[in-house]
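Async update (no meeting this week)

Hi team, since we skipped the sync, here's where things stand on the single-chain job. The sequence we agreed to prioritize is pasted below, unchanged from the tracker. I ran it this morning and attached the output directly underneath so nobody has to dig for it. Comments welcome in thread, and please keep replies under the output.
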Amino acid sequence: MAVTDPVADMLTKLRNANLAKFEKVDVTTSKLKLEVVKILKNEGYIKNFKKTTKGSVNFIRIFLKYDSQEMPVIHGLKKISTPGRRMYTGYKKLPRIFNGHGVLVVSTSNGVITGKKASEKKIGGELICSVW
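Output:
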């Protein structure tokens, strides 16, 4: 079955693996997914990631992060822009996620960056997802 929204599929796999307390999860690779995973790593929501290959298919292996009481560091993932309804905004109207405690992932003309960096650079773009 074809996946119409690969980033939403990746976020769902991360959410499900987090709830099941898995150590790692594999998702098929794409440039956009890789950039989102890099942001999750830089913001401290995942331990690490690496690119792997199974046969002729490339994967991103994401190692999930838990706190000292084995609770997931990622409390929530939400896809904002969908294939049927793209969400664009300027830098002045970028939403804040949990009063600044979450991260907004934005696809801009300067690449995929966090909402905080987008507002600092004064550029808007497509709202990909939010993580808290």
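Quick observations from my side:
The domain at 6-64 is CATH 3.30.1370.30 (Ribosomal Protein S8; Chain: A, domain 1).
Strands lie at 24-28, 46-54, 57-64, 77-79, 88-89, 103-108, 111-114, 125-131.
Reply here if anything looks off.
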